[in-house]
Amino acid sequence: VILAAGDGTRLNSNRPKVLHEVCGHPMLHYVLRVAGEVGATRHVVVIGYEGEQVRQSFRNRGDIEFAEQTERLGTGHAVRMAQPGLKGYTGDILVLAGDTPLLTAPTLQKLVQWHRHQDAAVTILTAEMPEPKGYGRILRYEDNRVQGIVEEKDANRYERAIREINTGSYCFDAQALFQALERITPENVQNEYYLTDCIRILVEQGCRVEAVITEDHTEAIGVNTRVQLAEAERILRQRILVRLMMSGITIHDPSSCYVDEEAEIGKDTVLYPGTMVMGPSRIGKNCRLGPNAQIVASTVGENTVINASYLNGAVVGDGERIGPFATINGGKGV
Questions:
Q1: Do 82 and 183 sit in the same domain of this protein?
Q2: Tally of CB atoms within 10 A around 95
Q3: Residue 140's CATH number
Q4: Residue 329 belongs to a domain with what CATH number?
Q5: What SS3 state is found at 296?
Q6: What is the average per-residue pLDDT within 299-315?
Q7: For residues 288 and 51, which has the higher predicted lDDT (pLDDT)?
Q8: Average pLDDT value over all residues in the chain
Q9: Which residue, among 164, 155, 92, 154, has the nearest Cα to 128 in the 3D structure?
Q10: Is 59 inside a domain boundary?
Q11: pLDDT at position 115
Q12: Per-residue model confidence as pLDDT tens digits over 60-77
């Protein structure tokens, strides 16, 4: 179940929050992908504000079911909207936030494995945040068992000092989740149905509640503002560039080079400062790109040099030299 009903108010946008792009893809794309990588075969996406835009953006995905949250009554209410489509289901349910594009498959796999190993009613993915402002805090008993989660707006000053935060990712036993959802109430500062109240209810019932702490706290970053969107983009781009460099590509100034996630670049290619490789571009081996080259959705053969030029939808053969100051929109480069 992926919660994707956010309206992007703090992004100051008319687009649904989960459709804002990071490295060439909507944030929701990354959450769907990571869920699939850990074995989820059904995806129930809860939509709300401008939900039709979300439907249209993912209309070619046959593995998505949509549930609609017409009233913004909290995360617990959102999961309730998904419940009818899961009637009769008795396995484990991942509940993820649609605005967490930095979550990785190994971390989510660790969450699922620990949940099953402990035979837990719910396992929460948590993180130790250097600056936890804006996140719900994890409450623990003296013996370190999970006591509950308190949202920041409901927390006292001692609870706000806690650095272990709720990432918004959970693995629930389906029946435990459904039973707890029936008992949540909007008795809080925001008058909303909190999904986090399910944790307290399960603890009170004596159910096993576990938590797994992420090794990399940046995976927990949720995007609510343009500043956080830029930070998510920076982190994901850095991951992409590191992966490329480890696979045999030289990048002279990673801070000034941009490569979209779906681009492919051949071994021994060199990216000089100011180079951008965007969209589903395919770059051959042993090329020299830049400085100041922008390549969008183009195919470039091997041993080619592109200097200070713009290519969009171009097809460039092997051993060609382009630029400086060339512009090619479609067609074959010469």
A1: yes
A2: 23
A3: 3.90.550.10
A4: 2.160.10.10
A5: strand
A6: 97
A7: 288
A8: 93
A9: 164
A10: yes
A11: 96
A12: 888 899 999 988 899 999
Return the SS3 of 189.
coil
CA atoms within 13 A on the CB side of 262: 15
Specify the pTM.
0.90
What DSSP string describes 66-100? EEE--S---HHHHHHHHGGGGTT--SEEEEEETT-
CA 6 to chain centre: 14
Residues 320 and 207 in one domain: no
User: What's at 230, amino acid-wise?
Assistant: A
State both tokens at 240.
């992409």
Q: Is the pLDDT of residue 3 over 60?
A: yes
Burial of 68: CB neighbours in 10 Å, binned 0-12, 13-18, 19+? middle
| Contact (CB, 8 A) for 171 and 94 | yes
* pLDDT at residue number 332: 65
Burial class (CB in 10 A: 0-12, 13-18, 19+), 14: exposed
Question: What is the domain range of residue 310?
Answer: 247-333
State both tokens at 170.
Answer: 């959970």
Q: Tokens in use for 269? A: 């290619």
* Cis, bond preceding 273 (omega within 30 deg of 0): no
> Can you name the residues that pair with 148 across neighbouring β-strands?
139
Total domains present in the chain: 2
Residue 225 included in any domain: no
Residue type, 276: M
Q: Convert 126-163 into a string of H (helix), E (strand) and C (coil).
A: EEECCCCCCCCEEEECCCCCEEEEECHHHCCHHHHCCC
* Coil, helix or strand at residue 301: coil
Residue with tokens 């002279």: 252
Which residues of 182-249 form beta strands (DSSP E)?
A: 209-213
Tell me the pLDDT band of 316, cut-offs 50, 70 and 90: very high
